[in-house]
């Protein structure tokens, strides 16, 4: 049961499917007419929870957020933030602040071909102009059949794959296995406590995953 909606997981997914169907029938713009704007996390969180395959934003550090708009309608969302895995930055740059991860990217289902690469390209140019960040890293999750086509189309460099791992599935959402260890001021966050208890009850469960395809983009090339 989703305590915020009073619906079961199946009910939430059914409602999301109906909403997606309605949205897909409404928006049919052309890529060149879309605009990309910096925005707040709050403006795109619900959109990402609906359209991203993970259906969650929990634990995501959002340093830079962007919306893709067809007129006034939000049809895409993107979040850049600190790298999820500790010390991974050391493999690519000399300072942690020199690299950022593309943490979330999603669009409504019926956007035209090349929409995602257009969206990515606009945000990369914004980062080049408005920050001192040197590199962007992102991952394509093989568990969900992703191979990184949009990153290849955006001129990212392919660096191979990560090792297989595991995630936690709970209430129709996917969480990194470290979600149960997230702390604030030395204490587990309330959601981490809840997730641990759901695992013990069997309501949440671990799911083995394949590796992820690794892509990087040099902002200062």
Task: Give a short summary of the structure.
The protein has 221 residues and is of the alpha+beta class. The chain is 28% helix and 31% strand.
Characteristic terms for this protein:
221 residues, alpha+beta, Aminopeptidase, 7-stranded mixed β-sheet, 12 strands
What does this structure look like?
With about 220 residues, this protein is of the alpha+beta class. It has a single domain, classed as 3-Layer(aba) Sandwich (Aminopeptidase). It is about 30% helix and about 30% strand. It is built from five helices and twelve strands. The protein has helices at about 10-25, 40-50, 115-130, 150-155, 190-200; strands at about 35-40, 65-70, 75-80, 100-105, 135-140, 155-160, 165-170, 175, 185, 185-190, 205-210, 210-220. Strands 1-2-3-4-5-12-6 form a seven-stranded mixed sheet, with helices on both faces. A hairpin with a 2-residue loop joins strand 9 (about 185) and strand 10 (about 185-190). The longest helix has 18 residues, at about 10-25. The radius of gyration is 18 Å and the shape is globular. The model is unreliable at about 1-10 (pLDDT under 50).
Helix segment tally: 5
CATH topology: Aminopeptidase
Kindly state the percentage of residues in helix.
25-40%
- Model regions low in confidence, pLDDT < 50 over at least 5 residues: 1-9
Major sheet summary line: 7 strands, mixed
Mean pLDDT: 87
Secondary-structure arrangement, i.e. CATH architecture: 3-Layer(aba) Sandwich
Principal-axes shape call: globular
Share of residues in strands: 25-35%
Which CATH class applies here? Answer: Alpha Beta
For the record, give the distance between the C-alpha atoms at the N and C termini, rounded to a whole number.
Answer: 49 Å
Structural class: alpha+beta
**Count of distinct strands:** 12
């Amino acid at each position: 049961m989703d305590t915020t909606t009073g619906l079961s997981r199946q009910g939430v997914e059914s409602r999301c499917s109906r909403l997606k169907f309605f949205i897909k029938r409404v928006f049919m713009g052309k890529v060149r007419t879309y605009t990309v704007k910096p925005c707040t996390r709050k403006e795109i969180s619900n959109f990402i929870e609906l359209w991203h395959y993970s259906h969650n934003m929990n634990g995501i550090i959002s340093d830079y957020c962007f919306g893709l708009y067809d007129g006034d309608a939000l049809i895409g969302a993107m979040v850049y933030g600190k790298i999820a895995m500790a010390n991974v930055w050391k493999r690519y740059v000399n300072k942690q602040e020199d690299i950022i991860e593309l943490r979330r990217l999603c669009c409504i289902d019926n956007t035209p071909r090349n929409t995602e690469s257009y969206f990515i390209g606009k945000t990369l140019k914004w980062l080049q102009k408005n920050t001192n960040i040197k590199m962007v890293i992102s991952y394509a999750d093989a568990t969900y059949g992703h191979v990184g086509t949009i990153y290849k189309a955006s001129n990212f460099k392919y660096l191979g794959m990560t090792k297989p791992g595991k995630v936690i599935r709970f209430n129709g959402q996917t969480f990194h296995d470290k979600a149960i260890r997230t702390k604030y001021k030395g204490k587990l966050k309330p959601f981490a406590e809840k997730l641990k208890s759901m695992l013990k009850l069997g309501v949440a469960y671990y799911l083995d995953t394949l590796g992820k395809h690794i892509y990087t983009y040099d902002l200062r090339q």
